[in-house]
Design brief:
Elements (H helix, E strand, L loop, with lengths): L8 H17 L4 H18 L5 H21 L4 H10 L1
């Protein structure tokens, strides 16, 4: 978490890469999968606000993973996806 709020953009990118790896390799129950989706959406909402292209690009990569692979792999329902995006 500390890396996400670091002033150095390279540290933020490292944190985003770590989050990507966690989400990509996650294998837990349905409730944990929804919790990870909510947490990931919250982080992405914050990262999309930065004016650094590299941070934005890493955030888009995670967003693509969440909305395409992650939700299919864990069979997350549409209402959970919408709720996580609205709260972010």
């Amino acid at each position: 978490i500390g890396k996400l709020y670091h002033r150095n953009h390279a540290r933020r990118e490292e944190a985003l890469d770590e989050i990507y790896q966690i989400l990509n390799t996650f294998s837990g129950d349905q409730e944990d999968a929804r919790a990870h989706l909510r947490a990931g959406s919250f982080v992405l909402a914050r990262m999309f606000r930065f004016d650094v292209l590299a941070t934005f690009s890493h955030s888009l990569k995670i967003f693509h993973l969440l909305m395409n692979d992650y939700v299919r792999r864990h069979s997350i329902q549409k209402q959970d996806i919408i709720a996580s995006l609205e709260r972010g």
